[in-house]
Amino acid sequence: MNIPVLDVQNLSVSFSGLKAVNGFSVSVSEGEIIAVIGPNGAGKTTVFNLLTGVYRSETGHILLDGKSLIGRPIHETASCGMARTFQNIRLFRNLSVRENIKVAHCRNMHYSMLDCLLRSKRYRDDEGLADSLTSRTLKEFGFSDDADTPAGELPYGKQRRLEIARAMSLGAKVLLLDEPAAGMNHTETAELMELIAKIRRKYGVAILLIEHDMSLVMKICERIIVLDYGSIIAEGTPSEILTNKAVLAAYLGED
Fold first, then answer.
1. Which residue among 47, 76, 146, 236 is least enclosed by CB atoms within 10 Å?
2. Could you give the CA distance from residue 192 to residue 198 in angstroms, rounded to a whole number?
């Protein structure tokens, strides 16, 4: 039996009486890439906020590797392996690329303030491990030459890639990408698709992505979930979604 790395059932949340998400469910296997699409305001980012603990679902459950995430604070959810990027890039712009990556690897640090003040063996060991992991991440994601560059000075496409690299540094089992191709040109989008394919191939990470670039979605996703007014109106393969009348009417356009 192929046990899903992420099992989500019947998530719902309301704001001021308005149902923003209504009964969202998805089961995601290791290495699977699934897109969540729909019109603006359909509830896509709200789903991501439910999955990562920003909002608490009124119903249902979220299981990551069999462990419930419902009610956990955001930092615990991230530590369990649920990592994300955002529509608007959220890097530490004044910190270097290296420092942005090391922030994520700090999850491996367990020394105390006293250890820090005394520069104890635990402090040196934890800092050494974080530095080693950071250097490896920089190399794997192509940032060795930009390691000391302030993140805010990187080209837009590289900033997107850095945000993904930082999310992966959290030890992601499931990676949530919120409009990763937004604002990218054709070349940057092609590089993004290669990066997503590499992450899936090398790390076996399950990926959920919100994206309006339908060319990207159709090329890299095995399944597509379509939201409208907070509810799932269709789910299937790219070819099935392209011919679904409800999707055509709500999102893609009947013509």
1. 76
2. 10
Residues 6+ apart with CB under 8 A from 98: 134, 138, 147, 148
Q: Which residues, 6 or more positions from 146, have their beta carbon under 8 angstroms from its beta carbon?
A: 97, 154, 158
> CA 239, 207, 134, 65 torsion: positive or negative?
negative
* pLDDT (tens digit per residue) in 34-54: 999 988 888 999 999 999 999
What's this model's pTM, rounded to 2 decimal places?
Answer: 0.88
**Alpha helices (runs of H) in 141-213, residue ranges in sequence order:** 156-168, 186-203
Measured between alpha carbons, how far is 11 from 70 in angstroms, rounded to an integer?
10
Which DSSP helix (H) or strand (E) runs through 79? helix 74-79
Tell me the pLDDT tens digit for each residue of 114-138.
877 878 887 787 777 888 899 999 9
H/E run at residue 25: strand 18-28
Structure tokens of 59? 């119903």
Helix axes 156-168, 97-105, angle to 10 degrees: 20
